[in-house]
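Section 4.2 – Deliverable D4.2 (structural model, holo form)

The reporting period included a commitment to supply a predicted holo structure for the target in complex with guanosine-5'-diphosphate. Inputs used:
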Amino acid sequence: PSLEYEELRRKVKNNVKEMWYYFNAELDKVKKYADDFPLDKREKDIDDAIKNTWEHKKSLMNDLDKLMDADGHGEWREKESRELSDLVQRRFYHLQNPSDCNTAKKLTCSLNKGCGFGCQIHHLTYCFLVAYGTERTLILKSKGWRYHKDGWESVFKPLSDTCQSAGGSSHSNWPGDATKQVVSLPFVDNVYPKPIYQPPSIPADLAPRIQKIHGHPIVWWVGQVLKFLMRPQDNIKNVIDYSRDKLGFEKPIVGVHVRRTDKVGTEAAFHDIDEYMVKVDQYFNQLEVEPTVRRVFIASDDPKVILTARKRYTRYEIIGDPTVAETASVSKRYSDSSLHGIIVDINLLSMSDHLVCTFSSQVCRVAYELMQTYHIDAYDKFTSLDDSYYYGGQNANPYVAILDHVPRRVSEIELRIGDKIEVHGNHWDGYSKGRNMRSGVTGLFPSFKVKNPVAVADFPKYPQVPL
Ligand code: GDP
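Output (structure tokens):
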């Protein structure tokens, strides 16, 4: 290791200690306040402590970022990420372009799930993963799509140049067997037996490489599928580029997705734009160099969100198109213009430096997945106001305790190293809630005491595709 690396490493260690000394001393001070210590002074002390701790954290995070690049690790990571993506894309291309479509093994999947664009993209991704896992060329049925009657190819490149026909000598429903040429896959909600190839599993043969370059391997893997599936037709590429220029989408920029209309009160809680903007500020505040303008791209299915943000946040550059949001509202959603709108919004969100949204929305989860294709590792370039990341219909993937925890309050649960934990959610306050599968007890525990092991499954290794 270089001198720079060693010095940084020691600096980080020392400063974590300093942070603890400070934290401890401040809390001790607060504990010893006399009863008549004025309330406003108390508040001032606490506010100062929060600000100082924030600065501590900022400095530590910046040092860790430098550590990431030290000793050529940054360049290595970039190269490895490019080569790995390239390998995966070549395998996808190989799978989708068999030399003889008449005899090729196929998996058919209908795009028309009765749900929104994000949900349909996730449905298609699941089909693609099963196709990859069973080495069957995926044939997408998309005519009469609710977003565009001409189907998928009206906006995205066909999934194959050589094989788009669902014809074959023998047919079967999932799971079928090797003797059947064409297998049709149902929606994930009805699939039985459940394919091992669906999230959160990543292919065993690629796992060591993916884990090395990415902090959340399944998101990288899904992102690679989206990279292949969502290759825009030229007309859509032009629409994206045009919107980007017209809006003035330039870095640094935070992407904010605010999901309203039919989602609020049914599948997600209402969050005021101020809640998103607090997170936007936290992102900008932690940058080492303050940008000349705090630029924010807002996408929503409610135009009022963009208009309100512009009114309230005059010192920011708020970009976004209220007319696009208008076409996205629940009553106008399934049309050509709304299709263009959602594709542009998802792409721009994914090109942002940081994403603030609610992971309860599939729009935002798709943007986060696609974001991984624009960065080497954007696993932490998001703030979700509600859920942790998940993939709808995913196979179970419990967390594992890596440290013991003795509960200190009635709301907390005990952890013993190795316990399996079904995590219900991260409260983003240092604690997560979940059920300890050993004890059966549900409650809070410190988030840092668990980890989510990477789920791995044996996928075909595609030896025909050179490494
Ligand atoms: P979810 O319901 O939020 O989980 O996501 P879905 O994608 O399944 O359905 C929501 C649909 O609402 C999207 O597919 C869009 O048609 C529309 N929509 C939601 N948010 C936006 C947005 O920010 N921009 C645009 N253009 N459309 C949106």
